[in-house]
Amino acid sequence: MKHVITVLIALVAGFAGAAAFSFSGLGNPQTREYLLENPEILPELASAWQQRDAQDRLTSISANVTRPFDGAVLGNPNGSKTLVKFTDYACGYCRATVADIDRLIAEDPELRVVVREWPIFDGSEAPARMSLAAAAQGKYDAFYHAMFALGSPTAENIAAAARTAGLDMEAARLFGSSDDVTAELARNGEFARQLQFTGTPSWVYGDRVFEGAVGYEQMRKIIAETEG
C-alpha cells in the first residue's frame, strides 16, 4: 500500500509541475510524510491538476468553441452566459439532459446554449446533418427537441422530426450534405479531441470543462460558481 501511495505522490508531483501548480515543497521529506499519512487528499490534488490541465487545453480554442454554427443555439442567442454542449442524437445520456437544459434556460434569460453536433455513435451522423440543416432554416430548437423526443435516430424518426420542425425537406437534404456541414462536424470532432472528451454529453462553461449527464443541480452550481 505504501508503495502505491509513493507512486501516486510521484505522479501528483509530476502533474503539479506540468501544470505549473504552486504546491510548495511537494518534494521535500516532510511534505512526503504528510501525504503518506493523509492519502485521502491525493484524489483532490489529482482533480485539481485535471481541471487546470483542461483549462489550459481550452485556452487556445475558447473563442472558437463558443462560436456556434449559425443557428445552432438554444435559449437566448445573444445571452451573456454561454454553455456549450457536445451532443449525439443516439446518446441516451444526451437525451436525459434535454429537460435539465430547458429548465436552466427557462430560469435564466441570459443563458445561451451553443450545441455542437458530435455524432460518435452508429447512425447519428444523419440526424446531426439534418439538425444543422434545421439551424440554417432557423428551426434548430424545434428539430433538436423533436428528434430527442422520438428516440432512436432511424430514418423514419429523422423525417418525422424534420416534419415536426417544419423544414423545407428538399433544401434541408441539400444543405445537410454540403461541405459547410461536413466541415462543421469535423471541426466539432477536433474540438472534442483537443479537450480530450471521451464521450457525450460533454460541456464547456467559462473555463470549466466537464463530461456526462451531471444533472440540473450540478449544472446550475457550475454556472453559479463560474459567474461568482
Note the topology.
Blueprint: H1 2-18, H2 29-37, H3 42-59, H4 62-65, E1 73-75, E2 81-87, H5 92-107, E3 111-117, H6 125-136, H7 140-150, H8 155-165, H9 169-176, H10 179-194, E4 202-205, E5 208-211, H11 216-227
Parallel strand pairs: 2-3
Antiparallel strand pairs: 1-3, 2-4, 4-5
Helix pairs in contact: 1-3, 6-7, 6-8, 6-9, 7-8
What's a concise summary of this model?
The protein is elongated, with a radius of gyration of 21 Å.
Q: What this model shows, in words?
A:
The chain has 228 residues and is α+β, with helices and mostly antiparallel strands. It has 2 domains: 2-54, no CATH class; 64-227, Glutaredoxin (3-Layer(aba) Sandwich). Helices cover 59% and strands 11% of the residues. The protein has 11 helices and 5 strands, in the order ααααββαβαααααββα. The protein has helices at 2-18, 29-37, 42-59, 62-65, 92-107, 125-136, 140-150, 155-165, 169-176, 179-194, 216-227, and strands spanning 73-75, 81-87, 111-117, 202-205, 208-211. The chain has a 5-stranded mixed β-sheet. Helix 6 runs parallel beside helix 8, helix 6 crosses helix 9 and helix 7 (140-150) packs antiparallel against helix 8. It is elongated and about 70 Å long. It starts with a helix and ends with a helix. The relative contact order is 0.13. Residues 1-25 have low confidence and may be disordered.
